[in-house]
Amino acid sequence: MSRGLGKGLNALFPGESLSKAESVEKIHVKSIKANPYQPRKIFDEIAIQELSASIKEHGILQPIILRKKGTTYEIVVGERRFRAAQLAGLDEIPAVVRNLTDEETMELAILENLQREDLTPIEEAEAYHGLMENLKLTQEQLAFRLGKSRPHIANHVRLLTLPGKVRDYISEGKLSMGHGRTLLGLRKKEKIALLAEQVLKDGLNVRQLEKLVQKLNEDVPRETKKEKKPDLFLAEREASLRDYFGTNVTIKKAKNKGKIEIEFFSEDDLERILELLNE
C-alpha cells in the first residue's frame, strides 16, 4: 500500500461521505461481523447504551463502512454504531460497502480509533506492534504513514514489555502511561509488578514514582557502595539521555575512560535505539 495515512481518515473517507459510484445499502445485522483488526478491546457500555437510545429515537444518521468477505461483511469503520444498532434491536443497518484489502482495513481501523482517541495506551501499543509485524514496517516508517512522531510510536510499543498485570492496570486506567514508562526505568525488572502494586496502594503520582525508581536504582548492596559525592554533571547527562532514548541509561566513569550503558527490552526496542544512534 503506497499511500500514506498521515492525512487522516478524511483523506480516505472524507467525512465518510459517498463518491459518485457509491450508494448506501441496507445490510442485515446478522450478515455483519466485527473487524478482526479492531484494535479497541474495551468498549464503553454506557456510551453504547446512550447511542442506542439515540438510534431508537432518530435512527442511524451516518452509514457504517463495510467490506465484503465471502458471504458476509466485515466492519471497517463504525463498530460503535453497529453495536448500538444491535442493542436497539434493528434488523438492518445503513452501510457503504467498499473494496479494501486486509492491509487497508487494518490501517483504517487503527487510524479511526486514534483520531477519535478511543484507544487505551496498551491498545494503541498493540495496534502499532501489529501493524509493524504484519506490514513489515520499522517504527520510522509507521510513524510516517500514521502522521505520528517516532518517539510517540516507540514509547507506546515499549509498554508491551511490562508484566501482564501492569499492562492491565494501564488498560483499566488505574495507572497512566507515564507510570508505565517510569516503571520501565527500574533496573530490577522482576520488581516492576510489586512496585506497581505499591503505586496503587500509596496513590503515587508519576513524579513521586520517578523519585522512588531513582532511589531504588541507587540502592546497591553496601559492600559495593563507594563513599563519594554523586557527579551532578553525569546525573544530568544520564537524565537527558534517558529522555532521548526512552529507556534507562547509565554513565560509568573511571579515571580517563568509562562507558555508557543503554538498556533495551526486545529486538524491536534494540532496533529503535540503533535507529536513534544513526540519526
TrEMBL record:
Record domain ParB-like N-terminal: where: 25-114
InterPro entries: Chromosome_partition/occlusion, HTH_ParB/Spo0J, ParB/RepB/Spo0J, ParB/Sulfiredoxin_sf, ParB_dimer_C, ParB_N
SUPFAM superfamilies tied to this protein: KorB DNA-binding domain-like, ParB/Sulfiredoxin
Sorted UniProt keywords: Chromosome partition, DNA-binding
Family matches, as SMART domains: ParB
Family classification: Belongs to the ParB family.
Protein name: ParB/RepB/Spo0J family partition protein
Organism: Sporosarcina soli
